[in-house]
Design goal:
single chain, alpha/beta, nine-stranded mixed beta sheet, two-stranded antiparallel sheet, 7 helices, KFase_sf, Cyclase family protein, KFase/CYL
């Protein structure tokens, strides 16, 4: 998986006569890559669970003094805590976790900082103009990227301010507008195996109970990375994201450890 992704980061391998004539490029040493952790620790005491999902439980079922080893029993939904979602999570007939390819979970990433707008309006929906303004400053979003929103919600994790529900139980969290996601898809920026990322529950604005944005993102081999943490350490451009977790049979995705993978010369934000 690393090899497949690194080919995209450091250049496509040449073949045939072109390869014979081309100068040899020194290989990139894997120990020169820098990793940043983009995941919350799964702890029932601090994990906010999406309304309606099963409670998250950890139970110690073996101890070293009594059994000679230590082991916990884990009970959780597949999308508890930091996780990735497969297309079949929202769309019948689309790939599920065990249909996905390793390269689907290792993608170039860009980070869009919308913290100020989200702080002023918790229902803020990122617009096409926001995306175009970002590109004017940082350059075109690479095709088949994961477009990550940094809303500031990662700082609210483990508190009632994270779900931010009102008296009627409606979530108030920022996300992508429907036109913005359609634009990312129609222009190839998400492509076949890109996706979205966010530090909230979902790429949808919390008040949109139709999940239209999710239904658009979760198609083909696109993924969504959700409830990301430590986004202050993810560079605005130049990094990749790598999602790892158990691949459940016919899974909707998986609770995951998500890393930002930084090539040489790219430093944490």
């Amino acid at each position: 998986m690393l090899a497949a992704g690194l080919a995209g980061v450091f250049g496509t391998a040449l073949s045939g006569r072109a390869a014979q004539a081309a100068p040899v490029t020194p290989p990139v040493r894997l120990d020169q890559l820098n990793l940043v952790n983009l995941s919350h620790v799964n702890d029932p005491a601090t994990t906010n669970v999406f309304p309606g999902d099963p409670a998250f439980e950890l139970e110690t079922i073996a101890t070293i003094p009594q059994d000679g080893y230590y082991l916990q029993f884990v009970r959780e939904g597949e999308h508890t805590g930091t996780h990735w979602g497969a297309p079949g999570h929202f769309n019948t007939g689309e790939p599920l976790a065990d249909d996905m390819e390793p390269a689907d979970l290792f993608r170039p990433a860009v980070k869009i900082d919308v913290r100020a707008k989200a702080a002023a309006n918790p229902d803020y929906a990122v617009t096409i103009d926001d995306l175009k303004a970002w590109e004017k400053r940082y350059g075109r979003i690479p095709d088949e990227s994961v477009v990550v929103l940094w809303t500031g919600w990662d700082a609210k994790w483990g508190t009632p301010a994270y779900p931010n529900t009102d008296a009627d139980g409606v979530l108030h969290q920022p996300g992508f507008s429907i036109p913005a996601v359609r634009w990312l898809i129609d222009t190839g920026r998400l492509g076949r195996r890109g996706g979205t990322g966010t530090d909230t529950f979902s790429p949808d604005v919390g008040t949109d109970e139709t999940y239209t944005v999710s239904k658009l993102v979760y198609r083909r081999h696109r993924i969504s990375l959700e409830i990301l943490a430590n986004l202050k350490n993810l560079p605005t451009t130049g990094a990749w994201v790598l999602a790892g977790g158990p691949i459940n049979r016919r899974g909707a995705g998986s609770t995951a450890t998500v890393f930002g993978v930084l090539p040489p010369g790219v430093t944490p934000a």
